């Protein structure tokens, strides 16, 4: 089997949409995703899945019930299942996500932002 | 619940040992680990676990049966379970690992390099 490495910058250059995670890897039933965020997302939670946000470029805010996290390049946070969170980014931010393959981007808050079928890039 | 972010640089500054992964996060039965590598590791495989290597600084080589991968900063590879691999790094490299909590660093090749009980930092 021939294995290939993934270069984050080159994958990030291949798309421009915001709030539309792309699958770049799969292991142990988990997906590695890349996404670009800008503006406000919806407050939501995932009933079954813990979710990791790692900032590759820019600055990501995650609003929780009683605190707001500010994540800069080289920082990550794990949002445990059941915890309501609202990502937002005044300027464009590039993020790597690590979560179960079953995870829906808007969790329990389906809206026009929901992406049910993710592209693999 | 108060959540804290993790800063990779500050975690990496907190240890110096090579080939001794430290746990920096846990989600969905998976561990996020940081490690510093320098020199040669052993050829090994994991029977049950896929393993992700993401390079934070430096250059990581992974020797496989019929190819050698060269990973630079911002690049990752997923080594599927059952695939023999030998990481090596002529110069120090800092790496983030994603893998099931059950993963043993030397897989099926127990040696003096085996670390059975990992620190959480």
Structural overview:
Chains A, B: It holds the Pfam family Cupin_2. Chains A, B: It comes from Marivirga sericea. Chains A, B: One of its GO terms (molecular function) is isomerase activity. Chains A, B: This is Mannose-6-phosphate isomerase, cupin superfamily. The structure is a homodimer of 121-residue chains. Chain A has 121 residues and is mostly beta strands. Chain A has a domain at 29-94: Jelly Rolls. Helices cover 4% and strands 45% of the residues of chain A. Chain A is built from 1 helix and 8 strands, in the order βαβββββββ. In chain A, strands 2, 3, 4, 5, 6, 7 and 8 form a 7-stranded antiparallel sheet that branches. The longest helix of chain A is centred in the N-terminal third of the chain and has 5 residues, at 8-12. Chain A is globular and about 45 Å long. The first copy, chain A, starts with 5 loop residues before the first strand and ends in a 21-residue tail after the last strand. The model of chain A has no long low-confidence stretch (mean pLDDT 95). Chain A binds chain B through residues 1-9, 25-28, 30, 32, 49-52, 56, 64, 66-67, 69-71, 74-80, 83, 98-100, and chain B through 1-9, 25-28, 30, 32, 49-52, 56, 64, 66-67, 69-71, 74-80, 83, 98-100. Strand 1 (6-7) of chain A pairs antiparallel with strand 7 (75-79) of chain B.
What would the keywords be for this entry?
Jelly Rolls, seven-stranded antiparallel β-sheet, 4% helix, 45% strand, globular, RmlC_Cupin_sf (chains A, B), isomerase activity (chains A, B)
